[in-house]
Amino acid sequence: MNTVAPEAPVVAPALDRLRITEIFLSLQGEARDAGWPTVFVRLTGCPLRCAYCDTAYAFHGGAWRDIDAILDEVAAYGVRHVCVTGGEPLAQKRCTVLLRRLCDAGFAVSLETSGALDIGAIDPRVSRVLDIKTPGSREVHRNRWQNLALLTPHDQIKFVICGREDYEWARGVLHEHALAARCDVLFSPSKGQVSPRELADWIVADRLPVRFQLQLHKLLWDDAPGR
């Protein structure tokens, strides 16, 4: 007697999920959109350990969230700007799905990334804020220099300056790669390591084609989590 093997049960596809440390509303504290009310989606995990990191609490823990639920929570805040950050958000592969879905929903989306991972798969509607690691970060060896060729005027580059050595190194990278011709370049002082006034004076003296920035959230809320 011929027997027919039973059909395999239909398994529903797994929902796209990300491990999230926090989602909160604040003012964007830096880069091109500084000052705008912004929803921050902070992903958990980071392969780097920068000396000046102020979000080490995002290295571990967090909670798994469906991307649909993340979008619903973001939309509930009722603002246009969204920043996906970390940790290092690109350490989770589905981050690119979240970025695309946010853009599809009509948000103005930025991504804060260390520059250590490939940015090539990110939706072009996203403004990528690429943090080039200086020697003072102790992670300069992690810079993925191939990312520079992928940058457009819609993107931004950030250097966190820890001292004069960092400044001179960043100035050399700026000129060697003609970064100011690619996109906006931002120099930011590392809090407690170089004074804002000192960095501002160096930039002016050298007439660098960069934007000096202070992190507004640190001035307003002194590094309070969720702000």
Describe the structure.
The protein has 227 residues and is an alpha/beta fold. It has a single domain (17-221), classed as TIM Barrel (Alpha-Beta Barrel). It is built from five helices and nine strands, in the order E-E-E-H-E-H-E-E-E-H-E-H-E-H. It has helices at 67-76, 95-104, 164-176, 196-206, 216-221, and strands at residues 17-27, 37-43, 63-66, 81-85, 108-113, 127-132, 156-161, 184-189, 211-212. A nine-stranded mixed beta sheet has the order 3-1-2-4-5-6-7-8-9. The protein is globular and about 50 Å long. 35% of the residues are buried. The model is unreliable at 1-13 (pLDDT under 50).
Which key features would you list for this structure?
227 residues, alpha/beta, TIM Barrel, 9-stranded mixed beta sheet, 9 strands, disordered N terminus
- Please tell me how large the radius of gyration is: 20 Å
- Kindly report how far apart the N and C termini lie: 71 Å
The stretches of 5 or more residues where confidence is low (pLDDT under 50) are 1-13
Number of helices: 5
At the fourth level of CATH, the homologous superfamily is: Aldolase class I
Rough shape? globular
Number of separate domains? 1
One letter per element, helices H and strands E, the order comes to: EEEHEHEEEHEHEH
Q: pLDDT average, as an integer?
A: 92
CATH topology: TIM Barrel
